[in-house]
Amino acid sequence: MRAVIQRVSKACVSVNGNVVGKIGKGLLVLLGVSENDTEKDALYLLDKIVNLRVFEDDAGRMNLSLLDIQGQMLVVSQFTLYGDVRRGRRPSFTEAASAEKARNLYEFFVVEASKILQGVETGVFQAMMDVELVNQGPVTILIDSEKRF
What we know:
With 149 residues, the chain is of the alpha/beta class. The protein has three helices and eight strands; from the N terminus they run E-E-E-H-E-E-H-E-H-E-E. The chain has a single domain, classed as D-tyrosyl-trna(Tyr) Deacylase, Chain: A (3-Layer(bba) Sandwich).
């Protein structure tokens, strides 16, 4: 399972011009699921994300987590995180999970996140979405449950 984490002052996701998820200060999580992923991968990623110390403390150091600041999370499914561009010019998505498997793990991730955090919002699975954000810092972190990077 892969995630691109962006520290935001605000973010929203729209489908057909209608806002379906919106947060203030917190993290935008673009979440990709591979065919090999399990609930264990989702829990690993969630634990990493909510405990990442990427928010500034009083001394200006990135020393606080999403839990520490009681921030919000916007989770958007993004199978393109498994796009392989090593050959040719068109991405291959053979490592991405099937829609059914990806939906199940995406929804599992969101449910588990909602048990830990208040203010978990989502996009619409498999929809064409417009994502708007104000990346604070900018701070962007990549996480892979198989620890590839």
